[in-house]
Prior knowledge:
Layout (H helix, E strand, L loop, with lengths): L3 H11 L21 H13 L6 H5 L4 H14 L1
Amino acid sequence: MMTQEGLLLAMDDLLELPPGSLKGPEALSELEQWNSMAVIGFIALADTNGARVSARQIAKCSTVAELLKLAQAQGSQG
């Protein structure tokens, strides 16, 4: 299972941002790169972390940190 730092770096890569750009409190609505393709990418990322995450769960998240918590919480149960 990836650490929070590892997930942040993976999110940077997913959103084509320089490594270390995301810290967690960023609002998804303010990230130009956060779109339907990024949602699909995040579902795949969460899956590689052992988490089963749905688009509905993602839609309830408003920050990067909430996404990471979702991926970690789900991953730790499996």
